[in-house]
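Next comes a single protein record:
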Amino acid sequence: MKIDPYTNEQFEPARTNQRFASAKNRITYHNLIARDKRMITREIDYSISSNWNILLKQLAGKDKVVRTREFLLGAGFNFSLFQRAYREDSEVIYRIYNCGFFIADDTVTIIKIEL
């Protein structure tokens, strides 16, 4: 006898490696685990996506634009959320997908990065 991890019911397995009493229990169990993982990352992913949309809107087809820090804050940009940061020459470039930005004093230079 084995115990189903989803329903905690006892069952007689048809195979030696069977963990769940039914396919429905197996699918529901794994869907719940996947949903819990998505819920954890949802808020951060949404905020990063929002930042990316703001950068894309500012670029508007250009390769490089300069905006003030206050302007981007007013647009809803969150400077603490980005995907990666790396140093190029003397600048730290913060990157979100195919966009990057670096901060110099009160100005923010937004650049399009070719993938």
